Amino acid sequence: MHIATLVLIILSAGIASQWLAAQLRLPAIVVLIASGVMLGPVTGVIELGLSQTELTELIGLGVAIILFEGGMDLKLSEFRRMGHGIRRLTILGPPLGWLFGGLAAHYIAGLSWPVAWVLGAILVVTGPTVILPLLRQAKLNQESASLLKWEGIVNDPIGVLLAVLTFQYFTLADTGLVQTLTGMGAAIFAAALFGGLGGWLTGWLYRRGSVPVHLKAPMLMVLVLIAYWASNLIQHEAGLLTVTVMGVVIGNMNLVERESLQHFKENLTVILLSVLFIIIPSQLKFSQLDEINWQVLAFVLVVLLIIRPLTIFLATLGGAIRKQDKLLLAWIAPRGIVAAASAGIFGPALVSAGYADAEKLLPIVFLIIIVTVLAHGLTLGNLARKLGLAAQSENGLLIIGASRWTQVLAQALKKLNIDVLVADGAYHRLKALRMDGIKIYYGEILSEHAHHELEIEHLSHLLAATDNDYYNALVCKAQGKEFGHHRTFQFAIHKESNQAQKRLSLQQRGYGAFNPDATFEALHQWLDDGWTMQTTKLSESFDFEKLKERLGEPGSEWLLVGGLSPQGKLWLQTAERSIKLNPGTTLLYFAPKNMEKELKNQKKEEAEQSKDTPEDEDKRTNE
User: Which residues form the Cation/H+ exchanger transmembrane domain (predicted)?
Assistant: First the structure.
C-alpha cells in the first residue's frame, strides 16, 4: 500500500473514531483502540514497514507535543492555591504507586522483577489526554479539577523517567545505583536547560517581536521537538520531562499570543492522539493478546481497587485536602497515550534484553487503559456530583453587567427556578440584585481571580449585557470556549456600529440576543414605558402563531427573550438562529404590562373550549 494512502487511512480512522465516540458519549480512547486493533491484528490493513526503533522515535515526537500542550495548561497560580495537595500527589504519589505497582505485577501478574518494576513505573502516569476531556465533561469545581489536572500532567514525565531508569538498571551491565542517580540528575539538568531556560528564551523572543506572528506557532512546535531531541541525547527519554517543563514556563509567561499558541497546539494534539492511538494498537499481535490470563485480570482489578486508593491514602495522609477530593482521587486515574507509548517502547526492548515475559507488557497496559478509561470516564460525573464536587445540572445563565433590566431578567429566571449569576465590576450596581437574593460576583469577569474562584459549572449560557458593545464582544469571545459559542450572547449592537462595513463579524462577538433592535438603551426605554417580563406556556391549542396574533409583531410591539424547553432546559432567543417552539415550551418575553391580562383571558377561553384547565395551560411569572 502506498504511504500516502496509509496515512490517509490512519487519519480518517482516527478522526472518525473521535467523532463516533462523541456521538456515543464514550471516551474517545476506547473507540480509537478498537479501531487500531481492527486495522492492525484483525484485518492487517496497517502495515507500516518501520523498524521498532524508528516507530518508537516517531511516537516519541508525537507524545512530546502532547505533553508540551498539557504543560501549557498548568497555571502556577493554581499551584500556589493548591500546592499542598499537588506536591503530595506529584512527590509522594509516584514512588508509592511505583512500589505497589511493581510488587503487584510480580506477585499477582507473575512477571519477573525487572519487567514488574518497569510496568509499575509506567502505571504511575494518569493520562492528561484522558483526564482533561473528562474534567470538561464532568463540570468539576476548580479545586478538584486542578488536583487531577496537575497530577495527570506532572506525573506523566515522572513515570516515564522512572521507567527509563529502571530499564537501564536491569539491562545495562555496568549500571548501578550511582549510575542510576547520575541518570536522574542528567534528566533534571536537561529539563532545566532546554525546558526551563529554553522556554524562557523562546517567550522572551516572542515578547520582543523578534518572530513574525505567522511563524510563532509553527516555530514553537519545532523548538519543542528540538528540545525533546537534545534532552534525549543527554539522558534517554529525558525529553518528556523537558517538554513538560517548557510548556509550564511558556504557559505562565503571560504572552499576548498564548491563547492562539495554545489553540494551535490543542488542534495538533487532537490529530496526534487520533494517529497514535490508531498506530500503537495496530502493532499488537494475537500472540500478545493470548498473554492475558486470570493473573493479568486479577492484577488489573488490584490496580483499580487497591493500589490507587492505597497510594492516595498514604500520599495525602495528614494533608490539607478535603475528604471528598481524597475519595475522588482514590478512584479516578485513567491511563492514556503516554502509558501506551511507554509500553510500546520498553516491551520490545526488554524482550531483546532477554526478558521474554515482557511480551505481556503492551497487552497489559492496553487492558488497563481500556478498563480505567471506561470505569473512570463513565463514573466521574456521578461520583463527583454525589461528593458535592460538581454541578448537579448545567442549566443557568451568567449575566455580565448589572442594570435595572438585567435585574428584571434575573428575577424572572429565578421564579422559573433557573440558576442566575450576575457579575459586575461596580458594587453599587450589584447592590439591588443582592438585596433581591440574586447571586452576584463583584469583580472583572476576565480576571485571573474570576478564572480560579468563580464557580460557573452549573451555568449553561452567558449574556454580555453592558452598555459597551465592544466589551460585550470581548467577553463573548473570551468565554466562548467555556460555554460554547452557540450559548454565548450579547446585547444588540448599536445602529451606528451595525452598518455592513463597520459591524463586528460573528467570529468576533457573541450571538445577538433577542432582536437586532434590543440594544441596552432600547431595553431600558421599554422598561421605563412600563414593559414587564412575562411568561406563557405553549400548547396544542395555543401555539406561537396565536401568541403573535395577540401580542403583535415580535421585536417592535413585544420582545421574545427565551424560555424553557419542555424538558426544562434554558434557551435564549436570537435572530441569528431559529429555535423550534414545540407544545410544552415555556416562553419568557418582555411586553407592555396591559398585554398580560388580555392574553390570560384569551388563553382561559381557549382552554375552556379544549376542556383544559387554565392552570395546566399557563404558569405566568411577573416582575
Answer: 10-385
